[in-house]
Predict the 3D structure of the following.
Amino acid sequence: MINITFVCFGNNFYEFHSEGHAEFNKGNDIVCAGVSALSYALLGTLENVKGLKVKNEINNGKMFIGIDAATKDVHAIANTVFSTICIGLKQLQLTYPDHVKVDILSDATITEESR
């Protein structure tokens, strides 16, 4: 199972976390390929937004992306990118629910213990 989490505060996306393996079809895993393509598209697009600082870590089936925007306008662009990728990943979850799980954590769902 690939577990994906988007972290938001207010109406703004700030982080993306992905961990695990789809285990749909070993050696020819279209689910893993789909998640990877969308994840790398998120990273590559965010890295090309002027005025957006992007942190990332990719290691052993895990990916982390965090952002810091210089202005509200820049963050609005980042939100559009995050939203688009989130929709794509949620579509994969609908099609392959035993292999992909997408969660969105917001300040309404995050507790002090989980920060």
User: Anything to note?
Assistant: The longest strand covers residues 12-20. The chain has two helices and five strands. The domain at 2-110 is CATH 3.30.70.1490 (Alpha-Beta Plaits).
